[in-house]
Amino acid sequence: MSLLETERLLLRRLTPDDAAFMLELVTDPSWIEFIGDRGLKSVDDARAYIVDRYVADYERHGFGLYLVALKETDEPLGICGLIKREALDDVDVGFAFLPRHVGRGYATEAARASLEHGWRDLGLRRIVAITTPSNRRSIRVLEKVGLRFETFFRMPGDEDELALYALTPPEE
User: Is residue 172 part of a domain?
Assistant: First the structure.
């Protein structure tokens, strides 16, 4: 069952049945470069990761990262949604797509839907995003959907510097 729908996309909660897709996504070199190696080696690892990470977020916060599928075919393209990280005061929007689906505007479309969901359904007053400063593709998407660079920072216990982008809801 989809939670969010756009012109071309459906966004729905991830389930353990999405493990093969998740394994492909998190073992992709671009995921590992920009997000980090999650150490998943099998479909069983990916199934446990979905339950421990994504399903737990849905239960804890009522939202999280969702599977993004093409409306026409239901083909999984990537993930996108809102995340509540302990290290950040604000909810952040995040996304990752398989390389074969990059450059078609899917991330922008899904991120816009996620932001609208945050404003309309969750009553958020500010949404942020974090990315590595070298991730030009992600930065372009963030800027297209209205987020603006705010500062550089480091997550607790992490050596890598990240760029923080932020957005407040449009005025009614």
Answer: no
Q: What is the pLDDT of residues 67-125, one digit of tens each?
A: 999 999 999 999 999 999 988 999 999 999 999 999 999 999 999 999 999 999 999 99
CATH number of the domain where residue 12 is located: 3.40.630.30
Dist. CA 156–CA 34, nearest whole Å: 17
Range of the domain at 27: 2-167
